[in-house]
């Protein structure tokens, strides 16, 4: 996923080098291997799922094939590996075509990176899932760890998925699976590994943290990955309970780069001893290499052949730089991987380049202080329009989970960006890559209030603040200082017809909530969400109470249909148009 990225957040955008791309990552990995004959290539998960169209259209077989050629050996299972369920994950591990009935699906087994056309070899690397158990067998879904030997010394790599995965993927994706505690699982494995004579232990965990505010560096550990309020980050909580036998933790999930090790540097200052404390208080090196192929972590590990243990760890995060003319040996694209990418790009381009509509300004997925996103407004409107007709749900409002509005939103990716801009199918797929279907249900006014309250930590089991994106006709205010389950101050609703290019008000405004009080608790409304939310995703369990549930179209199809109303020769979509009633969410002082 090529783009630009800086070694720290202080690098001006214009000076950030071009980074990423499978063919460039392959070149960087090959160079690292050449200078370090004793090596292993590992990952911390989310290597499939929510991928760009060039991979997703082909069931993520391109991602697996290029990772094979890059030389990946072990990879922890991330939450996105479960987007399509355990059986599809096993297929990607073991190989074979995706079936449509009894026949191979049309876009499966292209074979551009496999052994032969019309085939899919599967992953040559091993996905590891020590804490994910198949409840039907009582065994781990995939191997709990992998082992590699370096000059007679064996090193174990334990793979771990964040235990909160069931709350952030579609329930169908994790059906029949149990996600156990990460630290407890590692600690139970330590005696088994030691019985095998293994003392060198690395944990690959799909969980992470953030450096917080400030000029964070890809090799920094600002605030030692504590949250802004001083509380421990999720990865810090996991490491704090790990057995002292663990020598290194390689993490992921948060898409953040950090290097918490004995040689880390914060904000360009003098190196200082860092790391995250384990259960004994010893500082353990913890790393993360960001996301989208932008950064690789180069880790030197020294092993003692007598004790078979790790005696030194020295990690360095490096940009996957594709633009440094002074380092051409690092950035010359790997031709074999480049050929695979080119073949899939050619296969996807007719669909990807198809223009679906025109916009007058960009709609990023960046949230305002209120939590409202320009791209989120659009997607909520899309989903309402698709389900407003009586036969398709008779919806009057829609809600969209913010995590499902993918970066960068609906924008012109060029630099500098110019408008009007013709939006392609590829642009649309980038912001809606999950293939979720729309679901319309009936909720009462009280349930609507409860749903909005459940956006905030501490209400009805919610552990993370997530501001839902809302459709045209809805508006509300919230008070950050309010108690749990008492933050929503006012909620107003105006029935609006989105079946026309210019939304039209079709009923008088209605105050559902005034000063925190629901005015008519039992009054009902038809509400549309995606299937992820409908089944309680992101902790929105209020939606499980919905009645008269009706399934609908896929989200990407609804987005394409919506843009048909703004495709030449029709006027373009103007996200600043007054009829869109923005802003819709107000955060009170």
Strand content: 25-35%
Strand pairing plus helix content: what structural class? alpha+beta
Q: Give the strand order, joined by hyphens, for the main sheet.
A: 10-11-13-14-18-15
Ranges where pLDDT stays below 50 over 5 or more residues in a row are 263-269
Mean pLDDT across all amino acids = 93
For the record, give the distance between the C-alpha atoms at the N and C termini, rounded to a whole number. Answer: 39 Å
State the major sheet: 6 strands, mixed
Q: Total number of helical segments?
A: 13
Kindly state the percentage of residues in helix: 10-25%
Rg, alpha carbons? 25 Å
Q: What is the β-strand count?
A: 36
Outline type: globular
Overall description:
With 589 residues, the chain is of the alpha+beta class. Helix content is 21%, strand content 26%. The strands form 12 sheets. Strands 10-11-13-14-18-15 form a 6-stranded mixed beta sheet, with helices on one face. The protein has a 5-stranded mixed beta sheet with strand order 27-23-34-26-35. The chain has a 5-stranded mixed beta sheet with strand order 33-32-29-28-36, with helices on one face. Helix 1 packs parallel to helix 3 (61-70), helix 1 packs antiparallel against helix 8 and helix 3 (61-70) packs antiparallel against helix 8. The longest helix is centred in the middle third of the chain and has 18 residues, at 335-352.
